[in-house]
Amino acid sequence: MMPKNHLFISVISTGALYPFWGTKSALAFGLANFFIDLDHYIEYVLVSGKSDLKGMFLLHEEAIKDFKGLLGLNIFHTIECYTIVFLFSFLWHPVCYFILGGLFFHHICDEIDLVRAGYPFARAFSFLEYFIRRPHCKTVKDIYNNHFLRNKRI
What we know:
The two termini are 22 Å apart. The protein has 154 residues and is mainly alpha-helical. Helix 2 (23-35) packs parallel to helix 6 and helix 5 runs antiparallel to helix 6 (95-117). The longest helix has 23 residues, at 95-117. It has 8 helices and no strands. Helices cover 72% and strands 0% of the residues.
């Protein structure tokens, strides 16, 4: 899903939840729903060593074209991240439940898009799954090396 679509869904869901949950909880849900995708930027920086947003979006577009056989690891979309946020809700502040809800809501929207595209397992659900499947799949780093370095697009 494109960032503008995620932003739209975050704003609409936050607005819809505000009357029921109040400002703090609805805002936590909406911000988590949108900012979960920072892991795409982190992945781009780690793969390319660059920090420009344009390059990240170009790499993301190329990955979408080449979903077949792709395995991505987006750290904020993993069971490990969700577990940490869940634990924070006990150890730190209950608002983390709403952050967790925003993360899950976003992930469900992403999965619906991946299922529609025919690639429901293009993203690893955990670090363990990623390291088990990685030797048999192409990764975002492979796409970067094959398409971008060769064609000098970034």
